[in-house]
Amino acid sequence: MLIFSHLSKYYGTHPALKNINLSIGPGEFVSLIGHTGAGKTTFMKLITREILPSKGSISIDGIDSSVFHEKEVLSLRRKVGTIFQDFKLLEKKSVFENIAFALEVSGEKSQMIKKKTFEILESVKLPHKASSSVNELSGGEKQRVCIARALIHKPKLLLADEPTGNLDPITSWEIVKLLLEINSLGTTVIMATHNEQIVNHIKKRVITLQEGTIFSDQEKNGRYIL
Ligand SMILES: Nc1ncnc2c1ncn2[C@@H]1O[C@H](COP(=O)(O)OP(=O)(O)OP(=O)(O)O)[C@@H](O)[C@H]1O
Ligand SMILES: [Mg+2]
Fold first, then answer.
1. What is the mean pLDDT of residues 3-16?
2. What is the pTM of this model?
3. What is the CA radius of gyration of the chain?
């Protein structure tokens, strides 16, 4: 699914990631941990091609990142769904509009947009909020809208960058359970998090970054060790 090969990323002269070599297989659930500034978000942005490697390469679903053309970048972004700590939703728009937007830009017909949007809202248990404005929602509900939006193109890979960072413990668990459910249906999930309890409880693969390098990679029953 994902292969990082001798990958380094410098911001100016500052190395954010240094010589990363690792592979993540289809269907894995990976917790990405590390102190602030360790390189987690940089890791995510390299996958979506928001930024490019300084050295080395990333192969995503068999395609080397360095040979991507415009068209392939678009198709890559459809294979990869992303969710963030601060949601990045259109606050004044409705829940329905926030999700439908992703389908409108790809030119789907309105009947199909409605059908797909309600199906996806069903899967995050929010169909009753379809016409609510996003700024009327709780944090947990907002994050569920983000997950729905990220899933709309049925991505093979879901990147979640501190998805529970702004949520209380109970709501955080609901979101993590949803991510685990999505993973159990076959989507590869990479979750960057500072939440020790969650990482220790879910017992999945844990990759620890430290100052831009891989400090440890616990393939099974991973623990939160920094
Ligand atoms: N656009 C940028 N320009 C310059 N330096 C940057 C930029 N983005 C990140 N950095 C630096 O790169 C390093 C890694 O940052 P990154 O955001 O990947 O860390 P992180 O592990 O996600 O941290 P956090 O847990 O706080 O989210 C940090 O030292 C940061 O200051
Ligand atoms: Mg970050």
1. 96
2. 0.95
3. 17
